[in-house]
Design a protein that fits this description.
The relative contact order is 0.14. A five-stranded parallel β-sheet has the order 1-2-3-4-5. It is α/β, with parallel strands linked by helices. It has helices spanning 11-17, 31-44, 56-63, 82-95, 106-110, 116-122, and strands at 21-23, 48-51, 69-73, 99-103, 129-133. Helix 4 (82-95) runs parallel beside helix 6. Helix 3 links the parallel strand 2 and strand 3.
Length: 139
């Protein structure tokens, strides 16, 4: 495992980092960057690493329970149907995700958020923390 040496943190910094998902969702991300993200996450004591679904299984194996793996469903626009989001969620949980964030469809929010109930049900009560993301565009 590559070594990451964090700077000395104050108690306040450490407490804040313990609530942060260290995230890399770039479509150009490759395993070496994800591995570095995992190493940094352990070194800095973050809440989880948030990565694309394609890396969840490998990261979960690499981390071996030392840090939760989070992934995103319906990223980046939330346009997937509820059934697709439920399928993505079941796959991510099976691959080892301990937290799932779903990007919500703004149009669905306007139409009473259809789909969140299926997404939460797909997490299956297996100790997986579901969350919703409101992604407002790209810069």
């Amino acid at each position: 495992m590559p070594s990451v040496t964090p700077k000395q943190l104050t108690d306040a910094e450490a407490a804040l980092l313990a609530r942060v998902d260290h995230t890399l969702l770039s479509p150009a991300a490759a395993w070496p960057e994800i591995q570095t993200l995992c190493d940094e996450g352990i070194a800095y004591g973050v809440a989880s690493v948030c990565i694309p679904p394609t890396f969840v299984c490998r990261a979960a194996d690499y981390l071996a329970g030392r840090l939760p793996v989070c992934t995103v469903i319906g990223f980046p626009n939330g346009y997937h149907t509820a059934d697709v989001k439920a399928f993505e969620t079941r796959c991510a949980v099976a691959d080892g995700a301990g937290e799932i964030d779903m990007v919500i469809d703004i149009g669905a929010v306007k139409g009473l958020l259809h789909g969140s109930d299926l997404f939460i049900g797909a997490a299956g009560g297996r100790g997986v923390l579901p969350g919703n993301l409101l992604h407002l565009g790209h810069d």
